Amino acid sequence: MTVEVNGASREVALDNRTTLLDALREHLDLTGAKKGCDHGQCGSCTVLLDGRRVKSCLVFAVTVDGRSVVTVEGLAGPDELSPLQAAFIAHDAFQCGYCTPGQLCSARGMLDEVSRGWPSAVTGDLNTPVELTDAEIRERMAGNLCRCAAYPHIVAAVRETAASS
């Protein structure tokens, strides 16, 4: 199969039972996405598939043939951080760092959803642009768990990034 990963076309031969997470980590040497629960519950494996957030442990790699995947390694250029990554550092939005790649990919996807005007379960008025409140950020990031409970710092980093966009 051929897949675009972080802007580069990659060809890989895989067993049809291989998850996207295992393909990224074991066959493409992209170890940013973490294997946490392997059941789609923790979000540490979150990547962007065609610009949308997915839990890569739940996606068979063969289903992404010809599609585009962005991992945490592809969020910024080789010598600089993305504004979101810089905000995570500035707000100490990570403790042990295990969930950070998934949090970053999820936050990037969430910010893109907000820019498209997509509502969440807590969006109050569906006829006006989404206001990115703390409650809105928490709801949208609910699929990503942090064992160290850095949630207030993550919310602050996402809020800062959204405000500067």
From TrEMBL:
The keyword Hydrolase does not apply. It comes from the Bacteria. InterPro entries: 2Fe-2S-bd, 2Fe-2S-bd_dom_sf, 2Fe-2S_ferredoxin-like_sf, 2Fe-2S_ferredoxin-type, 2Fe2S_fd_BS, Aldehyde_Oxdr_Iron-Sulfur, Beta-grasp_dom_sf. Residues 1-75 form the 2Fe-2S ferredoxin-type domain. The keyword Iron applies. Keywords: Iron, Metal-binding, Oxidoreductase. PANTHER family: OXIDOREDUCTASE, IRON-SULPHUR BINDING SUBUNIT-RELATED-RELATED. This is 2Fe-2S iron-sulfur cluster-binding protein. The lineage of its organism: Bacteria, Bacillati, Actinomycetota, Actinomycetes, Micromonosporales.
